[in-house]
Amino acid sequence: MKTLMVYALCLTMAAPAVWGADTAPLRGYSSEAARTQREWEAKFRAIPDPALLRAYMQRLSARPHHVGSAYDKENAEWIAAKAKEWGLDAQIETFDVLFPTPKERALEMTEPTRVVAKSAEPAVAGDATSAQQSEQLPVYNAYSIDGEVTAPLVYVNYGIPADYAELERLGISVKGAIVIARYGGSWRGIKPKVAGEHGAVGCLIYSDPRDDGYAQGDTFPNGPFRPGDGAQRGSVMDMPVYPGDPLTPGIGATKDAKRLPLSEAKTLTTIPVMPVSYSDAQPLLAALKGPVAPAAWRGALPITYHIGPGPTKVHLKLKFNWDLKTLYNVIVRIPGSTFPDEWIIRGNHHDAWVNGADDPVSGMGPLMEEMRGLATLLKQGWKPKRTVIYCAWDGEEPGLLGSTEWAETHAAELQRKAAVYINSDSNGRGFLQVEGSHTLEKFINGVARDIDDPETKATVWKRQQAARLARDSGGAAADRNEARTRADLRIGALGSGSDYTAFLDHLGVASVNMAFGGEDQGGIYHSIYDDFYWYTHFSDTDFVYGRALAQTAGTAVMRLADADLLPLDFDNFTDTLRRYIDEVQKLARDKREQTLERNRQIDDGVFALVDDPRNPRTIPAREAVPPFLNFAPLENGFAALQRTAKAYDEALAHASENGGDALARASLREVNARLIAIERAMTLNEGLPNRDWFKHQIYAPGFYTGYGVKTLPAVRESIEQKEWKLAAEQIVRVGKVLENTGEAIQGATTELVRAAR
After folding, report:
1. Contact 365, 548 (CB under 8 A)
2. Which CATH number fits domain 48-97+325-451+493-562: 3.40.50.1110, 3.30.1120.10, 3.40.630.10, 3.40.50.1370?
3. Which of 140, 432, 576, 638 has the fewest CB atoms within 10 Å, counting from its CB?
4. What is the DSSP secondary structure assignment for residue 175, as one 8-state letter?
5. Contact 214, 223 (CB under 8 A)
6. Does residue 568 contact residue 439 with C-beta atoms inside 8 Å?
7. Cβ proximity of 735 and 631 under 8 Å
8. DSSP string spanning 375-415?
């Protein structure tokens, strides 16, 4: 860390001062408007207070506040009351959603000996809230089906498709078995999904100490990592199909909503699934025999990792209360003075699995300080041009419930008015991390250049650049060189896993997700130990990065809300899109070459070799060689889009001449409406193959990653799944989407030229 801090300072001192922060141009502003804007932003950034952030966390995480709990409702009411106290318009919107809670949980090893799992996390001396057992949700996975099974156990590593391919090569089947997978490698809900597809009858998920326990460092309370009895709660809803309430797909879960019967809900698991601690997992894994697990599958437990099946046999019994619970979304509105029907939306969730100091209160507190800061500016005469909406979502943890139901309920209005959505979730100490729509990449780089890092005193942009340039950062030489020479740092693409999902993936609203982190690792995720004691001992202990998040997100909100012209950029977008197109073409080539090589090995008898006389490999059948795919529709669509992006930049440059006088006098309402529509043009009403809720054709969570993004998902995933006819169809379809996006940019260009005359 010290090396990075020194490096960041050296970069700052060595960098040429092209312009000062107070004179740097702001995209979408005239020179005069930019000066005024920077004055307001400087006033705002002086307001967030670490002492208040600490107080918010202590209040909000004082008791467990999961969906349906009394303190969840109290927290929502308290947040709304604080906003009203500051002079803001705050309302609570409620929804009624399916939220199962455990009625019966039982796990035991029945062979070769009997061992009963504790399935409980003990309180820790000195950590007061860890002892609130009567209010805590027990360790379980929400949206697992009821079930009782007794079966042999098979260890499946992370339980992702590649692991089952390895099991197949080893001649091991999970049909009729209970699988045990370790957390990691994918979102947890993928593990029972893939296990069920391979015939398993139950699934256990445990946290291996290799990943977030004693192999990483001292365990709680002596250090930040997961103790032996710590376990990770979490949803296993099949969110890559659709997030939100399982009973009301595509519509808001209002009181009078038409609900599916429970038997028809598509996002429940097909097999029972339960999380366990590594102390409960160890005797189950230690009793397994069969092949020794491959080296990459071995965790840090003091055992030899075997795959099974047998002789370990386990009994799993789960039964749930399948109740409707009420969500409490806090919605705070600041009306726009010039463009009231263009909305900048900012959100973070307030519900947790237990006390949730890190997840989500470390992000919720900064959002509250942003609201307080903007309320202070309003009293001083600041008036945002666009309407600003702050949202404290409920029900994020079970499946993005609050944000999804709100977005589905207000979908028609949001599609007309929502310009940008800014999300955060957890926050910690370290570097600014941003993912999102690449039309916002240049904008967010500009914001990051104006925020001071609390530790290095360089900007958070410069500190992130230093991290990417560091030799030990793990980045390739080409990536380090790009970080040194490219004007903007690249942001990642968004998949799913937090409340931006409904806005970006379903409605086509340009979105970003941001947080600080990277220097405060731990292993208390979704456990009773994610509380005020842990956070104030092992994370952003003085809350200065909470202040930095409030400054960053609040500056972004203000800059978007006050711009005459929405500061979207299409140069960085097309640069990134070019990469995605190259990647899917390479993926298709690689699949063909891999198939040819595999068939050659089969013909040469390589797969007939026996590594272990007790476990001979199965000789697989030859595969059909993938066809050559025609990527011309993608290339043509991209070429058209690139031309229009260049034309827009030229028009904007012309309108920005002479201090942006043309922007200052232009009527830009129609231009902004066209700009808002550009992200919508990247969607299709029919959605992705086999999951029509996901409309965006550039970004989506992977069907078998859950959270991890798949870019150009319809094309990429059809190639990955070797569905060649579908891949050819999707190439044509997505090529047309790129053409539509180009036409939307051209429409904005035409209006900008007309408005600036």
Report:
1. no
2. 3.40.630.10
3. 576
4. T
5. no
6. yes
7. no
8. HHHHHTT---SEEEEEEEES-HHHHSHHHHHHHHHTHHHHH
| Second-level CATH architecture of 99-322 | 3-Layer(bba) Sandwich (3.50)
Cα torsion 320, 323, 328, 329: sign: positive
697-738 confidence digits (pLDDT tens): 999 999 999 899 999 999 999 999 999 999 999 999 999 999
- Distance (Å) of CA 431 to CA 199, 459, 545, 658, 735: 43, 10, 9, 37, 36
The closest of 418, 421, 414 to 444, measured between CA atoms, is: 421
Estimate the crossing angle of helix 657-665 against helix 632-655, to 10 degrees.
90
Structure tokens at 503: 């806005």
Higher pLDDT, 357 or 609: 357
User: What is d(CA 432, CA 598) in angstroms, rounded to the nearest whole number?
Assistant: 43
- In whole angstroms, how large is the CA radius of gyration of the chain? 26
Domain 571-755 = CATH 1.20.930.40 = yes
The answer to whether the CB of 346 falls within 8 A of the CB of 388 is: yes
Q: 256-265 burial by CB neighbour count: b if 16+ within 10 A, else e?
A: ebebeeeeeb
Helix crossing, 544-562 with 31-45: angle to 10°? 150
Q: 3-class SS at 459?
A: strand
Distance CA 66, CA 397 (A): 8
What single-letter amino acid sits at 677? A
- Contact 405/252 with Cβ under 8 angstroms? yes
Q: 595 φ, ψ to 5°?
A: -65, -45
Structure tokens at 544: 């200065």
Q: Half-sphere exposure of 69 toward its Cβ, with a 13 Å CA cutoff? A: 22
Q: What is the pTM of this model?
A: 0.95
The pair of structure tokens assigned to 682 is: 């990247």
Domain ranges of the chain: 1-46+452-492, 48-97+325-451+493-562, 99-322, 571-755
14 burial (CB, 10 Å; 0-12 / 13-18 / 19+) is exposed
CA atoms within 13 A on the CB side of 576: 23
- Rounded Cα distance, 461 and 449, in Å: 5
With beta carbons less than 8 A apart as the criterion, state whether 640 and 740 touch: no
Query: Do β-strands 386-393 and 202-206 pair in parallel, antiparallel, or remain unpaired?
Result: unpaired
Question: Mean pLDDT across the stretch 208-212?
Answer: 97
Which runs of E-coded beta strand occur in 452-500? none
Degrees to nearest 5, angle at CA 750 with 749 and 754: 115
- The Cα–Cα gap between 708 and 492 comes to 11
Exposure b/e, 202-236, CB count within 10 A at least 16 = b: bbbbbbbbbbbbbebeebbbebbbbbbbbbbbbbb
Closest CA to 521 of 221, 212, 744: 212
Six token digits for residue 82: 């604080």
Name residue, tokens 């039982």. Answer: 106
pLDDT of residue 2 exceeding 50 = no
Beta-carbon contacts of 502 under 8 Å, excluding residues fewer than 6 positions away, are 243, 244, 400, 403, 404, 406, 407, 408
CB 308 within 8 A of CB 288: yes
Q: pLDDT (tens digit, 9 = 90+) per residue, 513-567?
A: 999 999 999 999 999 999 999 999 999 999 999 999 999 999 999 999 999 999 9
Residue with tokens 């949202």: 391
Question: Tokens 């192999």, residue?
Answer: 215
Provide the pLDDT for residue 522.
95
Mean pLDDT score, 425-448:
98
Cis bond before residue 209 (omega within 30° of 0):
no
